[in-house]
Amino acid sequence: MPTIRGKSLKAIAYDIAEGYVVVNPLFLKPLDGESLKGLHQEIMKVQVEIRGERFPQGESKAIRWRNTRLQRLNSAVMILKNFARERRLFLF
């Protein structure tokens, strides 16, 4: 299983959602095609998992936290897709 900086791709996806890891082209540059595809898949899984959690009705801080995590993951996917397109890689 591919790893990034000694962590599994699943752990990196959760770290992106929590805000511990920032995805940018410098972060993605040393990764090969297999790692990029794996990271994309794990990010998508974490997005589905967060969306599948019970929605926090009436708790504004919890709603904001949920939306922030989803926003971080979504922006990471967009950056990842653009980076892969520049390298002429297919993520699917």
How are the strands ordered across the major sheet? 1-2
Count up the domains. 1
Count of β-strands? 2
Derived from helix and strand composition plus strand pairing, the structural class reads mainly alpha
Order of helices and strands: EEHHHH
User: How much β-strand is present in the residues?
Assistant: under 5%
In round numbers, the mean pLDDT is 93
What's the tally of helices?
4
Q: Report on the biggest sheet.
A: 2 strands, antiparallel
Tell me what the structure shows.
It is a single chain. The protein is mainly alpha-helical and 92 residues long. It has one domain (3-86). It has four helices and two strands, in the order ββαααα. It has a two-stranded antiparallel ribbon with strand order 1-2. A hairpin with a 2-residue loop joins β1 (3-4) and β2 (7-8). The longest helix is centred in the last third of the chain and has 27 residues, at 60-86. The protein is elongated, with a radius of gyration of 14 Å. The mean pLDDT is 93.
Give a quick precis of the structure.
With 92 residues, the chain is mainly alpha-helical.
